[in-house]
Structures are given as structure tokens and as C-alpha cells.
């Protein structure tokens, strides 16, 4: 353990119950940490900030990591953790609310009621006369298209099946676990276009990456039926919002439900916009904060990597007091060079694990005696080594 507590810089509001998992004495957690060992963040834009060289890890208390310069951090050997599924139920419930609000015209109906005057008979008459303007449709038997079948998309698909909807799902990179978790009634689509042509409700649950920017755009919005409802709880940028507004104006689309409002869409009568509320429930905030606090603690104290978006999962039970954690490029002969350096220093390897993911690899080595600064410097100097940490217990 280091001779001082780990400093954790907290950006955004992170649930207290999560922060409490970082015990004082071992961790100093706050908004004013000068040379932090790690950053805990939700949606704050880290692209706009210079990340101090002291930072060993970033933890995103949520799902999306497009606010974090993951590629630059990988090049520094810094893992970026997130909380897969920690807020998925919260998003699912808001998607259901969005579908119901659109299908039953609840926002204009509520505005109509709020604007009524009077009491008694005249009020009752105004209510009964007015309601026909807001008659809607039921969800049961309608088709929902889900684009992106990860943690959120799978829950949305499952809930829709339980509501009696037909579900058409599209995800070219669906994981085996996600596929197993889906109800057998979910039909598989071969493309975004197939979903847009066949569904009346379309809900997006993909990350914002270059391949998903404007996934829904002027060209494919034309495939929708005029009564369709498009729901974007993914990210601003996944839908070409200008094209969505044009589709609403041209009555090619009935409602656009969006969790990422911006000036262009705020006032449109057929937009139901929420202030990025998808993950804002007590339960989701607690779940995400707890997940990332635990992951961060395990990483800082033992080098364990669980749920990093840029590194493999690496865990190794501790059997010796002396551990070295090395992030390196996934190129030949890294393990050979690291073991040679250890052998040259007369250290016996007690246990070792090396795993890779894409361009990145990570090695945990437990040795049978203490490691000195010179050996750590030698390992650091190996071409391809990105970061080296000594973690004596
Ligand atoms: N509104 C909110 O508050 C809120 C909350 C949670 C997540 N999100 C957003 O939703 C996204 C998804 O969250 P999640 O927890 O389900 O993530 P996830 O990683 O579990 O799932 C994402 C899925 O999208 C799939 N995908 C990637 N590219 C695709 C493409 N081109 N077409 C179809 N599928 C594609 C992946 O294979 C994966 O299965 C997040 O990245 C985030 O941007 C928003
Ligand atoms: O990607 C996510 O997890 C959501 O967009 C939630 O973001 P938030 O934590 O800032 O609410």
C-alpha cells in the first residue's frame, strides 16, 4: 500500500453510498484534489480538460464513455471503468414512459387540462368535449424496433414483450450473454432499415461512436410509417435531429422522444424532450457509484481490472506481498522481456497473469520478494510498456 491515501477527484454529483465504499484513511475523495490518482465522473466532458499525469484510472459512474478521451488514456496505460447495466432499468422505465406519453398524447392532454378554467358542470363539459383531441393508441400488438441490444436494449425488448408488443431487434455485435437474456419472441432484423420499415416505435440504445453518428438520418427516416415514434435515449448525435424535425413537420414521423434537448428541438410541439434523465433515479445512481467505487478500489489497491472499456478483465488472487501491475501494448515478447528483467534482478515469479484486448495488454506479476525502484525503471523502459505500478500489500 502507498504511504499516503489515494486521492480521488470527483466531478459531477456521485451517490454518497458509492463514495462511502472508499474508506477514509485509504482514500481522500473530493472536488479539489490537486494531483489525483483517479477521477470519478458522470457526464462531465473530460475532452475539454487536461487530465493530470498523476491519474492512474478514470471511473465513469454510468454507461456511455463518449465524454472521456479513451484513446489518449489507453496510450497512457490508464484504464477507463464504467458501470455496465447499473442504470439500465432506470432507462428502460423512462423509455416505457416515453412510449406511453407519445401513444396516449399525454403531454398535450396534460397541457390542455392545466389550461382549463371554471368548476362544476362547465368544467366537466370542457373536459369531456376536449378529450377526443387526445385519443391515442395502445402499445399492445404494435411493433417496437430496438436498435442496440446491450444492457438497456435487452431490458426494453423484454418489457415490451411483456406489454404485448412485437419486438424487432438489431445489433450486429450482440454478445452471447445478451442474446441468451432476450425473450425468444424477439425477432432479429438484419439492418437499421429493416427496423425502420417495420416498426411503429423505434428505440435507440447504441453508444455514440463514429459508426453510430447519424445512424438515423434524412435518408432512412423516410422508411418510417407516418404514425411512428422515434425514441433517442442513446446520445445526441445518434439521430440527425434536424432531419427528425423535418420528418415531424412533413408528418413522416408522429413523435420524437429525446433525452438530449438542445435549442433546435426544445419548442417543437411533437418533441417530448427530457433533461438527460435516463439514469437519474436513486437506485441507478447508487448502483453505478457502488460499481465504479469498488472497481476503482480494487484497481488502485490490487491492480485488478474489472469493467474497463479499454482493457481486458484481469483478476488474480493475492498470494504474495509484492505485486507489479504493467499496462503494455499488445505486441510480441512483452511477457518475455518483463520476466527476463525480473529474473535478472533475482526475483522469483510466484504467480503471473497476462491478458490482452485489441491493442492493449495487461500483466499482473506477484513475486516472492520486494521490488526496487531500479527494476521498476527498467520495466518502464521496455518499448511498448505504457505504465508500471508497484503494489506491495
Ligand atoms: N439517457 C441516459 O441517461 C442513458 C443511460 C444509460 C445509457 N445511455 C446511452 O445508451 C448507450 C447504451 O447503453 P447500454 O448500457 O445498453 O450499453 P451496452 O454497451 O450494454 O450496449 C450497447 C449495444 O449497442 C450495440 N451497438 C453498437 N453499435 C451498434 C450499431 N451500429 N447498431 C446496432 N447496435 C450497435 C453494441 O453491440 C451493444 O450491444 C450508452 O452508450 C449511452 O450512450 C443513456
Ligand atoms: O451513459 C450514461 O450512463 C447516461 O447517459 C447517464 O449519464 P449521467 O450519469 O450523467 O446521468
UniProtKB/TrEMBL annotation:
CDD domains: ACT_3PGDH, PGDH_like_3. Keywords: NAD, Oxidoreductase. It is an enzyme of class 1 (oxidoreductase). Pfam families: 2-Hacid_dh (PF00389), 2-Hacid_dh_C (PF02826). The keyword Flavoprotein does not apply. It catalyses: (2R)-3-phosphoglycerate + NAD(+) = 3-phosphooxypyruvate + NADH + H(+); (R)-2-hydroxyglutarate + NAD(+) = 2-oxoglutarate + NADH + H(+). PROSITE patterns: ACT, D_2_HYDROXYACID_DH_1. SUPFAM superfamilies: ACT-like (SSF55021), Formate/glycerate dehydrogenase catalytic domain-like (SSF52283), NAD(P)-binding Rossmann-fold domains (SSF51735). InterPro entries: ACT-like_dom_sf, ACT_dom, D-isomer_2_OHA_DH_cat_dom, D-isomer_DH_CS1, D-isomer_DH_NAD-bd, NAD(P)-bd_dom_sf. This is D-3-phosphoglycerate dehydrogenase.
Amino acid at each position: 500500500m502507498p504511504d499516503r491515501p489515494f486521492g480521488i477527484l470527483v466531478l459531477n454529483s456521485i451517490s454518497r453510498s458509492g463514495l462511502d465504499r472508499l474508506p477514509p484513511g485509504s482514500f481522500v475523495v473530493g472536488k479539489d484534489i490537486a494531483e489525483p490518482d483517479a477521477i470519478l465522473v458522470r457526464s462531465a466532458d473530460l475532452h475539454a480538460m487536461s487530465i493530470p499525469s498523476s491519474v492512474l484510472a478514470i471511473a465513469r459512474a454510468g454507461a456511455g464513455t463518449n465524454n472521456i478521451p479513451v484513446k489518449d488514456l489507453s496510450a497512457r496505460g490508464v484504464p477507463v471503468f464504467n458501470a455496465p447495466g447499473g442504470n439500465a432499468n432506470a432507462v428502460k422505465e423512462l423509455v416505457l414512459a416515453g412510449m406511453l406519453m407519445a401513444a396516449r398524447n399525454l403531454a398535450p392532454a396534460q397541457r390542455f387540462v392545466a389550461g382549463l378554467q371554471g368548476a362544476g358542470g362547465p368544467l366537466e363539459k370542457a373536459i369531456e368535449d376536449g378529450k377526443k383531441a387526445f385519443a391515442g393508441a395502445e402499445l399492445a400488438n404494435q411493433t417496437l424496433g430496438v436498435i442496440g441490444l446491450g444492457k438497456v436494449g435487452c431490458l426494453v425488448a423484454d418489457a415490451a414483450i411483456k406489454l404485448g408488443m412485437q419486438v424487432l431487434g438489431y445489433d450486429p455485435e450482440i454478445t452471447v450473454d445478451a442474446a441468451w437474456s432476450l425473450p425468444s419472441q424477439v425477432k432479429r432484423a438484419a439492418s437499421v432499415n429493416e427496423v425502420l420499415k417495420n416498426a411503429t416505435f423505434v428505440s435507440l440504445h447504441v453508444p455514440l461512436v463514429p459508426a453510430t453518428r447519424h445512424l438515423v438520418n434524412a435518408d432512412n427516416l423516410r422508411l418510417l410509417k407516418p404514425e411512428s415514434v422515434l425514441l433517442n435515449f442513446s446520445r445526441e448525435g445518434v439521430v440527425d435531429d434536424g432531419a427528425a424535425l423535418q420528418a415531424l413537420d412533413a408528418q413522416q414521423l408522429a413523435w420524437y422522444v429525446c433525452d438530449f434537448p438542445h435549442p433546435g428541438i426544445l419548442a417543437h410541439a411533437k418533441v417530448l424532450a427530457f433533461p438527460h434523465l435516463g439514469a437519474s433515479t436513486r437506485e441507478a445512481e447508487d448502483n453505478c457509484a457502488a460499481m465504479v467505487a469498488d472497481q476503482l478500489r480494487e484497481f488502485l489497491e490490487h491492480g485488478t481490472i474489472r469493467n474497463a472499456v479499454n482493457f481486458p478483465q484481469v483478476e488474480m488472487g493475492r498470494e504474495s506481498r509484492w505485486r507489479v501491475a504493467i499496462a503494455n501494448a499488445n505486441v510480441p515478447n512483452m511477457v518475455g522481456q518483463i520476466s527476463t528483467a525480473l529474473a535478472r534482478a533475482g526475483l522469483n515469479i510466484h504467480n503471473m497473469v497476462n491478458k490482452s484486448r485489441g491493442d492493449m495488454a495487461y500483466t499482473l506479476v506477484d513475486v516472492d520478494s520486494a521490488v526496487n525502484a531500479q527494476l521498476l525503471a527498467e520495466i518502464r523502459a521496455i518499448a511498448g510498456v505504457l505504465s508500471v505500478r508497484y503494489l506491495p500489500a
